[in-house]
Amino acid sequence: MAVWEALIELADDHLVLGHRVSEWCGHAPMLEEDLAMPNMALDMIGTSRTLYCRAGELEGKGRDEDAIAYLRNEREYRNCLLVERPNEDFAHTMLRQLYFAAFMKPFWDAALVSSDEVVRGVAGKAGKEMAYHIRHAGEWVIRLGDGTEESARRMREAVDALSIYVDELFDSSDAAQDAEAAGVLPKRSEMRAAFDKVIEDVFAEALLELPEVPFGQRGGRSGQHGEGLGHMLAEMQSLHRAHPGATW
Amino acid sequence: MVQTTPLWEVFIRPRNGLSHKHVGSIHAADEVLALQAARDVYTRRGEGNSIWVVRSADIHASDPDQAAENFEPTADKIYRHPTFYEIPEEVGHM
Hints:
The complex is a heterodimer. Chain A has helices at residues 3-22, 31-59, 65-70, 81-84, 90-111, 117-145, 149-162, 174-181, 192-205, 227-242. Chain A is built from ten helices and no strands. In chain A, helix 1 packs across helix 8 (174-181) and helix 5 runs antiparallel to helix 9. Chain B is an alpha+beta fold. In chain B, strands 2-1-3 form a three-stranded antiparallel beta sheet. In chain B, a hairpin with a 7-residue loop joins strand 1 (7-13) and strand 2 (21-27). Chain A binds chain B through residues 30-33, 35-36, 39, 132, 135-136, 139-140, 143, and chain B through 1, 5, 26-29, 32-33, 36-37, 39-41, 44.
């Protein structure tokens, strides 16, 4: 496996979650969040673009970011399952964001010493973005968890629904292991302590119980996705597939 | 929504050395979310490096009906303006 494939996994995580979060645009419950969500989505989509470009360069077959993002089907997408989960309600959306950012923040901090110049550049920018995503999503999880009866119930349902996808974040695929050996990406398993600390602190304030997950769901890194990803990609890719090479 | 998410006034300082300026208002449940909302709504184009939020209800405003008695008496006191003085060049910006 090659290093560029590991960059595609990472980029897919950011593009898929970025697209999911962007689906709130125009539908958020208040104007403030209607702007906050696209802000966060654009952070992640921006990261994915840089990583796709770098992956295309390293692959050396002339694929650009559009070719990689728009011309692969769902089995070729390598994102982890957490990021493709549907938005459902604010509880699901914010918990999904908290889980992702709590993993990515220490990951990018560790990637500041990557052997790849582009990864180092992304790490500096994305680390700050993820720190804000932790705060934004974390404060919402706290307020929903420790809010009304209904918001607390929805928050507990989100924890039940999403926690089975957390363990996959810490797995390294064959490609990721090669990237780790080459010093391009940090070891995913080493993010556990930092992740647990963030989640424990937020859950304690949110009056949420830490979930016990006997069996984590996996499969995203080998292209085995939930049904929702195909629908999402169909919508995301339709314009480019109908009008190849379309630009603004 | 008005009961659970009160209105806040947002003040942004564009650069060190300048003062915070009122830029608009947002709804938020408390001061932490108000600061986040202000960041997300009003600093999307690099507008500043510091944010203040104040509950709109905590602001006391002058009565528009008293505008005449408040502000018009200064109109004929032009000697209060600094336009009668030559400002030495060394002073630079006043």
